[in-house]
Amino acid sequence: MISRPSAAKDFLTVNNFLDGDLGVNRAVIDFERCKECGYCVLFCPQKTLCIGKDINQKGYYPPIAQTPEKCTACAICARVCPDAAIEVFKE
Ligand code: SF4
Ligand code: SF4
Predict the structure, then answer these.
(1) pLDDT of 59-74, one tens digit each?
(2) Which of 4, 15, 30, 35 for mutating ligand 2's site (highest number of atoms within 8 Å of CB)?
(3) Predicted model pTM
(4) Other CB atoms closer than 10 Å to residue 68's CB: what's the count?
């Protein structure tokens, strides 16, 4: 079972991470494409991602980066995403 963070403000969203930290490793999740299967959260070797608190138009809660500084840009999350909703950038 995947737990949700209790305080969203304590976590960087993937989009905020993209806006504020160009030049670092990061996984960017397409908020509206995600169907919240949780594979990216489960398979990330760094445990960088967690299910977020914001709901998309399909009624799902896309993951966010809870520890973005740990991302190694390995792209495992992108490879396991069945909806091709993740793009990974390497520093
Ligand atoms: S690129 Fe690798 S380390 Fe970064 S979030 Fe995806 S699975 Fe985790
Ligand atoms: S693997 Fe893709 S569809 Fe599944 S939760 Fe992650 S981003 Fe969403």
Answers:
(1) 999 999 999 889 999 9
(2) 35
(3) 0.81
(4) 23
